[in-house]
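re: ur question from yesterday

yeah so i grabbed the chain u mentioned. its 380 aa long if i counted rite. heres the sequnce exactly as i have it in my notes:
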Amino acid sequence: MSHLPFKTWDIFCRVVDNYGDIGVCWRLARQLAHEYPFQVRLWVDEIAALSQIWPNVTAATQQFINGVDVRIWPESLAGIEPADVVVEAFACELPENYLAAMKHRPTPSHWFNLEYLSAEDWVEGCHGLFSMHPQLGLKKAFFFPGFSLKTGGLLKEGALQIERDSFQTDATNKASFFQDIGIEPHKNELIISLFGYENSAIGSLLDAWINSPIPILCLVPNSKILPDINRYLGESLISGDELIRGALRIKVIPFLSQTGYDRLLWVCDLNFVRGEDSFVRAQWAGSPLVWHIYPQEDDIHLVKLDAFLNSYLTNADPRLQIAIRTLWHDWNSGENCSQSWNDATAELQNWQKHSRNWCQHLNSLGDLASNMVQFCQKTL
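ran it thru and got these C-alpha cells back, copy pasting raw so excuse formatting
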C-alpha cells in the first residue's frame, strides 16, 4: 500500500481505566507502524501506564519503541505539524491549537474519534458517521469497534492467529512460558487465568474451585482482584506466591507485558478478563472466557453486557446459552457463582467449540486498523 496518500498518523490517548485505554492505543499504534508504510506518533498523558504493559518504555518525553514515536502529551501542541490521519481515542479532546493546525494543512487531516467497544444495536447506525466542528469546519468520523460487518471490527495483527496456533501446538513454547512465570502445570489440571476488578463474588468462585471434582490451577496476575482473594482466604499472597486449598492451586504471577499476556491467554483453558483490551484478546485466543465489564452507575454496564451476550450466543446450544449468561451475570453482579460455575463447566466442551467458531466469525469482519485505513481511502 505504498501508494496511499496518507502516511503519518497521530494517536492521542488519555489514560482513564488504568491499562485499557492505553492498551488499545498501543496495539493500534504498533500495528499501523508494522504493517503499513506509516509513521506513527502516540501521544499519551501518563507514560507510566504504558511502561506497565510494555516494559522497555521509559519516562522520556520522546522515545522510539517498536517503530512508534511515543511522546508524553504536553498541555500545548503549538508548533506541532498534525499528521495526515488523527485518532482521538475515546473522545479525549484535542488541543485547540492542534485543531487549528489541522485546518490549515494543505489537505485537512482525516480525523477519527475512536469509540469504546460495544455490541449495542445503536452502534451500527452511528459507526462511520461524521460530525462537523462548529468553528473550524473540520469533519470528524466516529469509528466504533464491534462484532458485525456494520462496525469497525476488532484490533488484530495480521499474523496473530498464526502466532497463536504455532505457540499452542509447540510444547516447548508452552513449557518455556510456564517456566518464565514460575509454575509447572500438573496433569489434568484445568488452567484458568483470573484478571478482574474488585469483586465480592470471588469467595463463591474460590469455594467452587476448592471443592472442584477436577484439579484447578488458577494464575492470577498481580492486579485489583488480588486483595479480594487475600481477604477471603485470609492470606497475604504477592507475586510469586503459590497456595493450595483442596482441589485449587493458586499462583500469583507478575503483571505481564501485552505479548506475555497474549501467551497467558493461549495456555489457559478458560480466561477471566476485564475491561476492553483483555476482553478482545481473550476472544482471539479462541477459548472460553468470562468478562468482567467495567462497572458503571445505575448498572448501565449490564445493558452492554447483555448486548454482547446476545451477539456472542446467537448460534450457541440453548443449554450453553443459559449457563454462560447466568455465570456472567452472577460474576458481574457480585452474586454467588458456585452453581453457575458448575453448570457452565459442565458444558465446557461445547463452550470450547463455540469459542473457536466465534473467533472465526470475528476474523471474517476484517480488523480495526485495516478498516480504518480503508475508510480513509474511501473518503478521499
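noticed a couple things. The two ends are 15 Å apart (CA to CA). also The CA atoms of residues 88 and 113 lie 5 Å apart.
anyway ttyl
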